[in-house]
Write a structure and sequence with these properties.
mainly alpha, 2 strands, 105 residues, Brnchd-chn_aa_trnsp_AzlD, two-stranded antiparallel ribbon
Length: 105
Amino acid sequence: MDNPWLILAGIIILAVGTYLMRASGAYFKGKVVLSDSKKALFSAAAIVILFSVAMTSTVFDGEYFSDPAKIIGVLVAGILTWYQKPFIIIVLSASVVTALLRFIF
């Protein structure tokens, strides 16, 4: 991407899209009523999207597979999250495990 205008156009499109999404929330507040089942569906959809993005960035690094240390570090974070440990403990444990595995191997 050597063309700065292309980068600027991308930034502007993302900024306008973000603004329109936020403004639509304020505009449609009270005008659109969702049932409890639809609210639960939207909540589950957001979780699925975040999980899939996290897994894709964990398993792949560009066009190649990630190193095993990164995958094991994310697994450690997932296990600690499952047991509802404090966030700082999760982050530090995952980073220490990943760093130690990279140092050893």
